[in-house]
Amino acid sequence: MSNLEVEPAELLCDDDTAPRFQLLEPREVPLGGPRAMTVRRTLPRRERSLIGAWCFLDHYGPDDITERDAGMVVPPHPHTGLQTVSWLFEGEIEHRDSTGAHQMVRPGELNLMTAGSGIQHSEISTPATARLHGAQLWVALPDSDRHTAPFFEHSEPVPTKLGDATVRVFIGELPGLADHRAHARTFTPLLGAQLDLPAGSVVDVALDPTFEHGVLVDHGTATLDDDHVVDAAQLGYLAPGADVVRIEASGDAPLRILLIGGTPLGESIVMWWNFIGRDHDEIVAFREQWQGDVIADADRGGRFGHVDGYDGAALPAPALPGIRLKPRE
């Protein structure tokens, strides 16, 4: 998914010392024009930029799109230096990208797009979709791999039981569930999983103690380690060091969460619009190449290639701020 903000803020993200637990509140962000879809963004925030290499998390829906003109229509747009993870709970989205990939995004299935040196893609909700509900996440690539050639992967994780919980591991693996390790390619140690628990149930989930973790609550209320309450749309951060987390579906509703994690990235990144780079000049160059090769000359492609099968123009980049991109204090 593109960041469609008209004036996206520049963000320099680094690994800072944090408390053992943080509760991150979502920020509502309208994507697009007057009939925009609103997403709830919990990464990046001023309090926390990264969880492992996870650097961006938008959570949306359930949205009734039957009254909208076209549902989700995100024209071709660029990415650099990252992987996009598309994960749906409801609905269907058609994905096309400049590697030639053409794939439907459906609930419980992983679409992983590695932008590497540069890619462009489009996303459109299908005509049969009445409700959209899901999450879009980005993973920052380490400096050693961020110029890799772009590629696309699709997989269908097999659900398994962990106590009363149903688990779908779509990135990496959970300790104790090695037989259900995801096969999608990653460039740093990562975890991504959906857990569903009946109301009132409790599950102890083994963790890699070298990872930091995040618990995004999609539905219900989670109580972590008998102490930390995370409500729907909130993101709970767990610092490295723990080898298990107790998750309770507190309240009267069943619980659905996304559990993400990874080893701290250990690198600073600058993230602006849909680009991840390492400094101001690199971001400027990415934008100039997008505007020159794709927006001004759609047949040239250049770094970002061309999306076949999309009927419409690519998305122009917003204007850069009038100052050099720099760290937020």
Automatic annotation (TrEMBL):
Cofactor detail note: Binds 1 Fe cation per subunit.
Name all Pirin C-terminal domain ranges: 194-291
Q: Which GO terms describe its molecular function?
A: metal ion binding
Q: Which Pfam families does its entry note?
A: Pirin, Pirin_C
Specify the Pirin N-terminal domain's residue ranges. Answer: 38-139
Superkingdom, according to UniProt?
Bacteria
Which residues are recorded as binding Fe cation? 77, 79, 121, 123
- Enumerate the cofactors the protein uses: Fe cation
Tell me which UniProt keywords the record has, alphabetically.
Answer: Iron, Metal-binding
Family annotation (PANTHER family): PIRIN (PTHR13903:SF8), PIRIN-RELATED (PTHR13903)
UniProt record similarity statement: Belongs to the pirin family.
The protein's name is Pirin
Origin organism of this chain? Microcella putealis
Classification of source organism: Bacteria, Bacillati, Actinomycetota, Actinomycetes, Micrococcales
